[in-house]
Batch of 4 targets.
Target 1
Amino acid sequence: MTAILIVDDDKNILKLLDIHLVKQGYKVFQAKDGMEALEILRKESCDLAVVDVMMPFMDGYTLTKEIRNLYDIPVILLTAKSQIEDKELGFQAGTDDYLVKPFEPKELSYRIKALLRRYDHQADESILRTGNTTINQKSYEVQIGNRSYLLPLKEFELLSYLISHPRQVFSREHLIEQIWGLDFQGDERTVDVHIKRLRQRFSKLTDDFQIKTVRGVGYLLEVQRK
């Protein structure tokens, strides 16, 4: 489910947008200031942020810069100001779009959908995702929520291969050929050892996926539908 973070010190705006976006099928997180927003982003995986400019403790421009430095998600700034100077500050901070109050919730929905399509279109093919788990095949990192993990190379390649082919059953021989190569001199127990290590690593970290044993055949990776 696509998650939207709304950041505004106006409780009425938070309530209005929460009702509207939940009806649109989004999961919504609410924050009343920038500090609370960053705390939510540290704990939760969000796909887009809607940020008010005028807030206590940390204004929307500063928060947008922080989000841009730490996360690869689009940002829409909300403001009561429409002067070109204010828009310039917003885009310099790194916002993707700019919406002036008062606005119709439907217009915000259109802008959210457009940005999500743009970011999805630009998504790197080397990135694999399932739930809150992201696998970056360029940096060899596994990210769960906002925490990153580095795996030994063969464990990483095995996990990447299985997640690339969810719900497909593979024999140990097939996995040996794909991950270790035809010249591998070891036996098929190598696969069992690496599967065991992956299960030990991730069983307590996430329920996004499970590696299951298919008796007499081999293994499959099952993704959790949410």
Target 2
Amino acid sequence: MTGALPLCPHADHQALRHVLACVDASSFANAVLAHAAAVAVAVKSRMTVLRVFEASAEQWPMDPVEWTMRHRDVEADLRERASHFGHLQTDTVVVDGPAAERICAWARDNAVELTVLGRSGENNGSFAGLGGTVRRVAEVVNGSVLIVPPSQVADAPIRYRRVLIPLDGSSRSESALPLGLRIAAAHDAEIVLIHAAPGVDLTEAGPPEAETITLRDRLRRHNERTGEHYLKRVRFWLPAVPATRTRVLPSGDPRHALARAVVEEDADLMVLSCTGQSGHPDMSVGSVADYLINHINIPILLVRRPEGSPTAVYGKSGEAMTARLPSRALL
């Protein structure tokens, strides 16, 4: 599987021309750079390496000479890190101030389409949860976000072997397809289109009756069959990619099911939409994406599509095709 894939009619809205890799002084900064470079090479974009220099309360006010010297040290460190990616067009930037605000502002002012951050920063150590800066950036920054878990990387460039793309039947979830397919193609990676059939909740007042159990089982089987049909339709209308599989996870909690699937599939990267079918206007990162960020130990790329750019998968003659699940058979 080599070369560029034909993408969806609105794939131009997701072209990545500028990737921003945000690093700090933690030991995991090299992992952020390596994954940012892996994506930037795949989509043929330029990369900027950014470091926000924050002074602690104990360091303030800082002597101007010391401040200048520290800035020079940070800039020299960034240039040295960037030199390992000579095959990329790479710039380095050092800014001062509150990290989340400066990252978001710089990304906005410099037309960044993808911001890459480590899940835990230098103040979080190896803590498994999402750092405050990363959470704020993921919720506010323009464009898509790649969040990298704490890890050590080798000197060799990163190659993704298996890319998971969760789909819940909504056009929002399908907005992750163009970018996920493009990255997978560049890395000759296997693509797994995956759907987690939703659980079935029935109101009960006491032990379930036989009729209730039968009804629940019928609904679960219905959701799983519908999911299988949906993925087959999506797979049929996508460009011909030999190394593509589909998988429907049994009815249950989609968050837990997807987290288990990452381990079972031995995946290297997950690409999914920031929000799924529910798409609550007050949530820029949906509940499923939020859970996965905190519970899986592979990079997760949250695709945020521009408003007003609907996504439809590609038909053989180039026409848009709609492949929707029933509204209740979704994540």
Target 3
Amino acid sequence: MRKHYEIRKELKEFYNNVAEIFSSTRKYWWRDLYFIKKYLKSEGKALDFGCGNGRLLDFLKDTNLDYVGVDTSKKLIEIARKKYLDKSFVEIEDEKKLPFEDNEFDIVFAIAVFHHFTPRMADNALFEMKRVLKDDGILILTIWNLWNTKYLKFLMKSFLRGNINLAARISFKYQDEIQWRFCYWWTKKMIVKKVKNFRFEIVESGFTFGQKKKTNKKFRRNIFVVAEKKANK
């Protein structure tokens, strides 16, 4: 597997390079993520880890949550700041250190982020998420389910090149050029175990479903985990 500083550098460059077009594809919430609403608190402080263009705010508009978004992409942070002038967005260097106090947040979101993390990077992020969450605070994370034909071809090619890890780079077409980004093929069992390792209590886990346009056939789009930080754990 590639070195972690190389992975982080490539991801930053990717999202900075494609920020405008990527943001334009992330204007609306996928319906399969509406399960999150039942866990929303009406008040308190929320951290959007990997906030991108800040679109989570449209989902939170009926709450009084004090929102903070963080991302490693400078360009996406700039887009978010222009769109949501009265909200706080912070550019961070990596997943290893969040610029917040212990027990500061009531809820932490990590929507479509962890598929860019190796297990070690996931450890870094979960350690920080637990640190900044209050006791009884909620963690909600979703991960692309990469175990489908669209993405498995990239993993198979990686295997053929001698890479025995569940990691590969997947393509993204931008201005008639191909850009590449690192992804890790998490399973639900793997990520649930990882979250439990940090002594979170699992509230719910499973899959969200999408629907193919041509066949109307449902497919597993995202893995999700909802967990709670319990006191004295």
Target 4
Amino acid sequence: MGMMSEDHELVADRPDQPALPVKGCVDGGLRLIAADPVLERLQSEAGARLGARLAIAPLADVVRLARELSMPVTREARVADANHRYDILVTAAPEGEVVRLTISDWRVADTRQVIEEAPETLDDTLASPLGQIIDAAEGISAQADGPLQDTYADYANDIAAAGRHLLSVIHSMSEQVSGRSSEEIDLGELAKEAAQMVEGAAKERNVSIKVNSFGAPGMALGQRGAVLQVLVNILGNAVRHSPEGGRVNIDFQSGNGIIETKVRDSGPGIAPQDRLRIFEAYERAHDADDGGKGLGLAISRRLARGMGGDVLLGEQPEQGACFRLRLPAA
């Protein structure tokens, strides 16, 4: 079955450029259960119908990563149909048993660049085969082809879990360390977009998010997809650690060639002994079992530093924690 509104039909005068955003929905079995016509067409050209497993490998990788991190993930990807290859910006947002896909940027790839590109990136080389390993291991664990000994099912589950962790590391290592140039970005607008992406989780916890956009921060230099991912990671943490009925505030500050985005929550705060280790992979404040994987802040800091900025822990407010994303001003 199709999905979404008629607003997402292909634009008549630009047949290669769909009206944005393009949306879809993937269930717990990695099946594309609903999609706009453009996404349904790509699924068909990849050899699968709507309702079957998501056959577009770059999108399937993003969905797996979002599930593993239990938070919205934004990635640049390249997809193709019978006529063209496209560079897209896709966000996968877990909501209960499903993952919602939103493609917010869609450009025909520069074919000259495709030809002249350096050899395959780490993502290109490892992500797709790793995804196949994860799929196979999950199928064995679920005993999709028939019953087997519990020990073997447990082994397969361990293989799938290790594969998903490795996939997240591959993405974080290669996403924006690939030589892409910086662009001017509006941090205020990106903060609003990131807030919308975690809105579902915030509503579940009755947490309010306020973007204090008065006193516009101006334009920063960075990579849009990477900055959006950092903001989603930080906001997702803030929502997860805020109490029922809590609040998250986003403020901006500029000076000395730096623009800073501050995210403050109303949770328990960060203990002094945790202030350094929370930026290490697989580390979590208070060792809390809150559904997080301990990767968000490590990935965020790597992405920010790759753009000439940083992610820092701010001064401890009276209640909660404050994280600061610093980027060069445009």
